[in-house]
Amino acid sequence: EAGTTYTIRVYPSGASTTPVRTVTGITGTAWSYDAAMIAADGVSGTIAVELESVRDGLISTHRYRFSIALA
């Protein structure tokens, strides 16, 4: 939708509430967490990813959070 951007936060495994990476202003429908980012963030095993949308400066009240096992 026009005017919508996305924010992604990456959390290490466990119940951490502090993200190791935050990416804002994403305008497309794809984003990759590549090997260089993984190494720089010092994560391994399973990570949690949180996705939220922002439209015209307003942050959505709903966020998606899911786990991903890193290979």
Question: What do these coordinates show?
Answer:
The chain is mostly beta strands. The protein contains 1 helix and 4 strands, in the order E-E-H-E-E. The protein has one helix at residues 35-41, and strands spanning 4-11, 21-26, 46-55, 58-69. A 4-stranded antiparallel β-sheet has the order 2-1-3-4, with no helix packed on it. It is globular, with a radius of gyration of 13 Å. It starts with a strand and ends with a strand.
Topology:
Layout: E1 4-11, E2 21-26, H1 35-41, E3 46-55, E4 58-69
Antiparallel strand pairs: 1-2, 1-3, 3-4
Sequence of secondary-structure elements:
EEHEE
Major pleated sheet: 4 strands, antiparallel
Q: How much beta, percentage-wise?
A: over 45%
Spatial sequence of strands, sheet with the most strands:
2-1-3-4
* Secondary structure tally, helices: 1
Question: Short description, anyone?
Answer:
Helix content is 10%, strand content 51%. With 71 residues, it is mainly beta. The mean pLDDT is 93.
Summary tags:
71 residues; 1 helix; 10% helix; globular
